[in-house]
Amino acid sequence: MISLIITLIVVGVLLWLVNNHIPMDGKIKQILNIVVVICVVVWLLSAFGVLGHTGDIQVPQIR
Fold this sequence. Notes:
Blueprint: H1 2-21, H2 26-47
Helix pairs in contact: 1-2
């Protein structure tokens, strides 16, 4: 549980640093923030077992 909280803090600090210290267009920052938030939410859902095993998804092979 502690590692989970530390990871969330590190991700938050890194996102804050990117938003404040790297000059980017506002749209790019917004897209980056949305992608990071979605990734963190999916990671948390997977960590707590809500999503189950995402490796079980099978993609058909094209021959």
